[in-house]
Every structure is written in C-alpha cells, then in structure tokens.
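User: Oxidoreductase. Structure?
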Amino acid sequence: MTKFGVVVGSTRKNSYSHGVAEAIVAGLPEEAEVTFLNIAELPLYNQDFDEESPEVYTQFRATVAAQDAFIFVTPEHNRSISAALKNALDVASRPWGQNVWQGKPALVASQSISGISGVLAHHILRQSLVFLDMPTMQQPELYIGNVANLADETGQISNADTKAFLANAGNQFADFAQRFIK
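Assistant: Predicted structure:
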C-alpha cells in the first residue's frame, strides 16, 4: 500500500488548493493511504533550532519521512509559493544533510483565480523540488486557472471536466510513483 502525503500550500479555510488536492486524491487507488500534512502550525524555520528542534518540527519531519510520495498543490502568492509552503519544505529538509523529502516522487499542481493559473508558483516549487532531490512527474502539467469558476463555495472542484482531469492525473501519479518507491 502506497502512502501519499498531500501538502496544500494554502492555509485558508475553504481553499481552492485543498479542493484541487481532493480532486487529485480521488484518482488514487482505493488502497492508497492518504495523509494531508498540516503546515499551518509550523513555526518559521530557524537554523538555531537545528541542534534542539521544537517538537512540532520533529513530528512534521517524521510524518514526511513516513510517506512514499507527495502531492503538492500551491496557490500563487505574489508570483511565488506561499510562505507556509516554503517553510514546510525548509523544516523537513534540515538540519543540513537530513533532508527527509529526498528521493520521494512528487506531483505539482497550481491554481489561481486568474487565468495565469499559478504558473510562476508552479515552476518555483518545481525548482525547490529539484534541489530537494524529488523526482517530479512532468505530464500532465496541472495549471488550474480561473479556479473560482470551477469550484463551489467550499473550495471543492465542482466542474465535472476539471474533476475528471485531476482524478486522471492522480491515477497517473500513482503509476509514476511506483517507479521510485523502494
């Protein structure tokens, strides 16, 4: 059974990113174990904590280490990823030499209320994943623009074509991930 971690870059209630993530997860195999990682409560990464990390860092790193693969869904904040997402990447990749993201396959999706679809955040996140040594699925590219028109008031994707597209991407990611899981 594959363990999929889901990291949603938005900490907002009823976020569109969470809705996109749910639609992707719907395409994973029935037996998949899915864990949504809470990044909202992580204190800002500080190298001074490397010698004696806060318990929340230790727990987060253990949760990341326990996953086989990751689905990342990010909004675009000022043409980049959210501070919460960047912080989560930093916390679990430190102390230096103890990167628990390393080698875990990843899927990246971005969304935006505009037509630009979070494309810049998407590519910035991909660059971080390259550095973290995470093999990342290349196709299909998941840029979801004008997401407010595709979701309901709770942020869940309600457009049938978009739901099917995202579920299919989740299914493809499950196959992709198996090539890297030891």
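The longest helix spans residues 160-178. The mean pLDDT is 96.
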